[in-house]
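RECORD TYPE: inverse folding
INPUT: structure tokens
STRUCTURE:
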């Protein structure tokens, strides 16, 4: 990245890509931030949650102007392609430039929100930039629990205006976001042997899907690998005796499942019909997602017959529950055209084991800008999964951020964009969780906006960051700071 502009932003971002920072494992990146502050002589505080706050005074002529908070989160979503060897706990992200795009080789890039961090740090170390007093807030675990924002204590922040740098759309100002709540379900089961007879085992998988952000991409018609696998198995139940030895798919609650697989067992006499059924279903799926999923791939391969399978009755009920479990966009907003109001994501299906024995773990995430609708879709997910699962629990959830159409900070941000680019930015709300809703609970007087450079494919190995958009966003941020 040494030749990319803005130089100070990309130099810092390159350093960030070398520091492991999976969600819930931010020890190294938190310490790196503390070391960065010490190196540059910047006041720095780290709280009990490992959030880091840096402060720099106003530059000459801006001493009487009200300060501003710049905010980004330090963790990243760790997704990789199945054939890529990468340890997110130890390995640096391998980046490369493809025209106007900065990408990673087979993994997530971490532009969400590493580039936001880089802009914050560039702003407080750029000696030529004029600005009021700046606080930089770097939070932990935004991606899997908003833990840093939840644990941020009252009184830590001094400013009354906050610019969140965690958005991913060029020329857009976000002034609101959805609230969310996660659901965790468990189905405990026993492994049993197959009945007497001649059996045929097959491994079925789906991969190559686009995946993406479970909020920002949920209305783009992308396939969910868990749903594809479950639908195929459900069809087979109507045609033959069927046993399931293994079923897994997806990874993170805030990413649309890109890959899934299952090990199934059918009577040996059904072997050829299984291949016919698979080919027929594969063709249906390709046709259904032809406009969106260009790299969709499915395989059916013979396997050794397993010695044990999931209890047949429970396996069948599990498939029905997963098939009935809602997924995708549920409703569009009536107040803000083009905004998804409510959605849910069937994120992952995993085989686990605990003191009670073996179990299937299912993770989903629900979002809505309407609090009552968020809980309504949560209840619908619980109703479906409860048919198979003996445990269904929900997280604490997090609030949405109600748009303030009279925001003064929004007006300054909008005017800055118009001056620089002779165009009107869009003012929107986003169907994704931002930490701003939680900040507003603790600091109800905050005036907030969220901006960021153009990124695509976040939360997936297709993540890419626009270099030219990063240049524009940096210029925009500097213009806002100069004119606050």
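DESIGNED SEQUENCE:
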């Amino acid at each position: 990245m040494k030749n990319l502009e803005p130089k100070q932003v990309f130099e810092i971002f390159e350093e960030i890509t070398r520091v492991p920072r999976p969600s819930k494992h931010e020890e190294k990146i938190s310490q790196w931030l503390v070391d960065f502050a010490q190196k540059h002589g910047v006041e720095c505080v780290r709280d009990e949650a490992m959030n880091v706050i840096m402060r720099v005074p106003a530059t000459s002529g801006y001493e009487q102007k009200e300060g501003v908070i710049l905010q980004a989160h330090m963790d990243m979503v760790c997704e990789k392609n199945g054939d890529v060897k990468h340890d997110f706990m130890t390995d640096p992200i391998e980046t490369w430039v493809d025209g106007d795009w900065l990408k990673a080789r087979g993994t997530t890039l971490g532009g969400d929100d590493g580039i936001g961090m880089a802009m914050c740090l560039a702003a407080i170390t750029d000696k030529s930039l004029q600005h009021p007093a700046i606080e930089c807030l770097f939070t932990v675990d935004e991606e899997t629990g908003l833990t840093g924002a939840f644990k941020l204590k009252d009184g830590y922040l001094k400013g009354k205006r906050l610019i969140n740098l965690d958005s991913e759309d060029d020329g857009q100002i976000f002034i609101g976001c959805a609230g969310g709540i996660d659901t965790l379900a468990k189905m405990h089961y026993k492994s049993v042997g197959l009945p007497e007879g001649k059996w045929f085992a097959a491994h079925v998988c789906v991969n190559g899907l686009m995946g993406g952000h479970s909020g920002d991409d949920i209305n783009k018609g992308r396939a969910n690998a868990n749903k594809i696998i479950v639908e195929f198995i459900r069809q087979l139940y109507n045609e033959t005796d069927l046993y399931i030895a293994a079923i897994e798919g997806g990874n993170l609650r805030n990413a649309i499942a890109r890959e899934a697989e299952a090990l199934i067992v059918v009577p040996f006499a059904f072997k050829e019909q299984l291949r016919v059924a698979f080919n027929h279903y594969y063709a249906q799926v390709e046709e259904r997602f032809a406009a969106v999923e260009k790299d969709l791939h499915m395989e059916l391969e013979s396997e050794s017959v397993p010695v044990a399978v999931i209890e047949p009755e429970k396996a069948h009920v599990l498939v029905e529950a997963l098939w009935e479990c809602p997924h995708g966009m549920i409703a569009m907003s009536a107040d803000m055209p083009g905004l998804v109001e409510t959605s849910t994501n069937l994120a992952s299906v995993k085989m686990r084991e605990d003191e009670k024995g073996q179990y299937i773990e299912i993770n989903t995430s629900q979002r809505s800008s309407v609090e009552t609708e968020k809980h309504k879709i949560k209840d619908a997910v619980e109703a479906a999964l409860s048919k198979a699962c003996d445990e269904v629990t929900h997280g604490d959830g997090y609030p949405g951020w109600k748009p303030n159409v009279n925001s003064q900070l929004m007006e300054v941000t909008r005017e800055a964009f118009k001056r620089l680019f002779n165009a009107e930015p869009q003012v929107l709300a986003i169907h994704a969780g931002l930490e701003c809703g939680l900040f507003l609970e603790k600091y109800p007087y905050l005036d907030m906006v969220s901006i960021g450079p153009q990124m695509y494919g976040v939360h997936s190995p297709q993540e890419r960051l626009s270099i030219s958009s990063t240049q524009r966003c940096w210029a925009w941020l500097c213009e806002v700071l100069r004119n606050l």
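NOTES: The CA atoms of residues 175 and 449 lie 5 Å apart.
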